[in-house]
Amino acid sequence: MIVLTLFSGIGLRDPWPADEPRFAQVAREMVESGQWLFPTRGGEFYPDKPPVFMWLIALFYQITGHLRIAFLLPSALAGLGTLWLVFDLGRRLWGEQTARAAVLALAFTPQFLLQAKAAQIDAVVCFWITLGCYGFIRHFLLGPAWGWYAASWVAMAVGVVTKGVGFLPVLMLIPLAIWRRQTGASGQPVWGKRAWWGPALMLGALALWLVPMWVTVERIHSPELLAYRDNILLRQTAERYANAWHHIKPWHYYLTTALPTMWFPLVLLFLLQLRNIRTLWRSSLALRVLLSWVVLVLVFFSISPGKREVYIFPALPMFALALAYVWEQAPAEARRTASRLLRAVLVLIGLVLVALAALTMLAPDRLPSRADDYADAIMTLAPGVLVLGLTLCGIVLLLRKRALFEQLALAGVLAWLFVSIWMWPILNLHRTPRAIMQELEHSIAPDAQVGMLEFKEQFLLFSDRPLVHFSYLAPLAQQEWNAWRWMRADRSRVLLLPDGLALRCFDLSRKRLLGNAHRRDWILLDASAVRDSCEGSADRAPYRYLPVKKDILS
């Protein structure tokens, strides 16, 4: 059932903002251009993330020919791989019952399936980090297993080229060194000079991407490629960690906000089982290593001023495995108390869903104003939400003799099947600019050139004609100046942009409203809106993207 849930809904929706359209469009351009070394977005180099995740989407796009299928496959497969690693490691450390409990706990923990069913980088980097941890445990605690030790370092290298934090398993060497074992389970040495080959393997694997990229940049030596190299190697790594420019949160954000919501119910179980953890701490080296590593990851990300829930996601699988062992070793009375509490929470969630569905059907005017954007979709979804809420309550009442984690996992699986198979198709129209682009086609001549201010990648995905933009990375004033110059060069050109921008080169009273998408009105300007003069800014050649394959999302 969990495997079915991971892959359910694939092909039923398009990439949704904020990040999914970007990664899907970058992968699309790789396939269309044949140039995979330097990711591009609308023809402009994309320096924010390393390329592995986009490579995977592009690979599945080449195989399937459908971007709607390809863009979700890497995360789903990474989620499946992570579950297998957790199960196999748990089975080897503490037995199959603990391994099964860890997988079931992950299936209910909100953050795991949320990431595994989204086209975000984090599920894939989580797999590489989990593989790195898996290899270290196999070697140092269950080994020696030098092959798995080497695999850990290679996994970290691929993780770094997926997202810069792929090196996180190296933090596990700290508790492994503190509670150092000279030999593994077989009595053979696990440390020594041979261990230094690990970092060398990691550097060698990194070089497979870094060297061709660096050599190409030096050979061409264009300002755009030089900026790409400096951004991807410095600004998006060390500078982003030490001097973050967005997502600024207080030091305690993960402890007080992210963990209680994204890692529920594991955090609650942790608090309820503190006494049992103290009892097991001395006897279980694996428990000490796993929990210490999770703490080190939390400390590492808490130091940075920039914080997001997804940053700590790679630590979740090892935390779930450790808590599953603690749960299986807990005294019967402690387990009964925790079970009653968590089952009560599950019933409460079900009752909240029932109340929300009833409110939607009986008094929709009392819903928050933000719900107006999805009014018709919410009314369509309300009966399903009602059934889901009653089902969650029924799981607790009708299956009360089943194990706690089985009940929680079943609730999580049913909720995500509802989301994937029913909710996604209904919300899809509201989460894409398809209607805007269709209205655009009805509003302009077939040969008209379209430019965009503050362009979003989802518009490229749904465009059947070439689109021009004026650099995603440029400030609005510079984009506007270059759009003004571009419009004056040919009076048949039009400009697509979000309403409400403070523009000095265009007369917004001449705008034409196309519709609403992503909670913004989108308007069209033609030559009549171009002012006779405009204060200059830095000149920059526009980027023109020509879609090679049409209807790739149909």
Distance between the termini: 28 Å
Oligomeric form: single chain
Strand content: 5-15%
Number of strand segments: 8
Write the layout of secondary structure elements.
Layout (H helix, E strand, L loop, with lengths): L1 H6 L12 H14 L6 E2 L2 E2 L6 H13 L2 H4 L2 H22 L1 H13 L1 H7 L4 H20 L5 H17 L10 H6 L18 H24 L2 H20 L10 H10 L3 H7 L1 H8 L3 H19 L12 H14 L2 H31 L12 H24 L5 H25 L5 H10 L6 E3 L4 H5 L5 E3 L6 H13 L5 E5 L13 E6 L2 E6 L17 E3 L9
Parallel strand pairs: 3-4, 3-5
Antiparallel strand pairs: 1-2, 4-8, 5-7, 6-7
Would you kindly provide a written description of the structure presented here, covering whatever features stand out?
Helix 6 crosses helix 17 (316-329). The chain has 554 residues and is mainly alpha-helical. The protein contains 23 helices and 8 strands. The strands form 2 sheets. A 6-stranded mixed beta sheet has the order 6-7-5-3-4-8, sandwiched between helices. A two-stranded antiparallel sheet has the order 1-2.
Summarize the structure in short:
The protein is 60% helix and 5% strand. With 554 residues, it is mainly alpha-helical.
Using brief descriptors, characterize the structure shown.
mainly alpha, 60% helix, 554 residues, single chain, six-stranded mixed β-sheet
